[in-house]
């Protein structure tokens, strides 16, 4: 899973160096010089996921829903070493569950008795080589399931299951090549031009990375605050 994500982001990040010289007039040299001079970057990151027809019980039982979740994190990034500096901060936001359904259309939908969390971030681990592992868990609540489309309901106990995902902070020099990159590609830019948005290849996570250059050395970094 990590290899797929990193490969995709690396291809997008490497687009700049692979572009023909004839396209040089599309490069924003001011932005390129700005980011080339930066050693430490603060990344404010928002991850959002939306999955359809997710099985809510922690076992094979016919209760499904559309779910979405969101996580916010901030960390300092050594651009040269491709590594996290200091301790990241993060915040989990409540998952949203909608369109609760049973085995098939027309069947009773059952009930959810508690909080479902699609991805609850527990810690952030630097994996080296520009890859960051987000260690988390999925929280399944107790459910009442109408089995085999019947009227009666069976109770299923809740459970917590480990789940991880990976991110790769993008090469910020891509800002200089914004005008030359496809608008609907796996890597794109926010409307205000302040963020790089990446779409994971092997799941439905969408990550918005907002970088800020840090002028202090890494021993003088300020404590992180989650602003978004």
What can be said about this structure in brief?
The chain has 228 residues and is mainly beta. The chain has one domain. The chain contains three helices and twelve strands.
Question: What does this molecule look like?
Answer:
The protein is mainly beta and 228 residues long. It has one domain. The protein contains three helices and twelve strands. The strands form three sheets. The protein has a six-stranded antiparallel β-sheet, with helices on one face. Mean pLDDT is 87; it is low at 1-14 and 16-22.
Q: Structural class given helices, strands, pairing? A: mainly beta
N to C succession of SSEs: HHHEEEEEEEEEEEE
Radius of gyration: 21 Å
Number of domains: 1
Helix content: 10-25%
* Quantity of strands, as a count: 12
The strand line-up of the biggest sheet is: 3-2-1-12-11-10
Annotation field: number of helices: 3
Biggest pleated sheet: 6 strands, antiparallel
Separation, N- and C-terminal Cα atoms:
28 Å
Percent range for β-strand residues? over 45%
| Mean residue pLDDT | 87
Q: Give the uncertain stretches in residue-range form.
A: 1-14, 16-22
The coarse overall form would be: elongated
């Amino acid at each position: 899973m990590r290899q797929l994500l990193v490969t995709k982001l690396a291809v997008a990040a490497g687009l700049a160096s692979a572009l023909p010289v004839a396209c040089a007039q599309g490069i924003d040299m001011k932005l390129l010089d700005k980011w080339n001079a930066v050693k430490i970057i603060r990344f404010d990151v928002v991850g959002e996921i939306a999955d359809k027809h997710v099985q809510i019980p922690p076992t094979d039982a016919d209760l499904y829903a559309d779910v979405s979740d969101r996580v916010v994190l901030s960390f300092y990034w050594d651009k040269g070493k491709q590594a996290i500096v200091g301790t990241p901060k993060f915040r989990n936001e409540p998952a949203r569950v909608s369109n609760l359904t049973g085995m098939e259309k027309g069947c009773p939908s059952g009930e959810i008795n508690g909080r479902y969390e699609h991805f609850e971030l527990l810690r952030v681990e630097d994996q080296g080589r520009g890859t960051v592992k987000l260690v988390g868990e999925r929280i399944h609540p107790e459910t009442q399931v109408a089995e085999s489309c019947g009227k009666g309901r069976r109770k299923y106990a809740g459970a917590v299951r480990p789940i991880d995902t990976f991110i790769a902070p993008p090469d910020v020099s891509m800002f200089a090549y914004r005008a030359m990159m496809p608008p609907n590609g796996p890597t794109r830019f926010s409307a205000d031009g302040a963020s790089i948005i990446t779409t994971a290849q092997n799941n439905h996570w969408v990550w918005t990375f907002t970088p800020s250059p840090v002028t202090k050395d890494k021993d003088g970094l300020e404590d992180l605050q989650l602003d978004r």
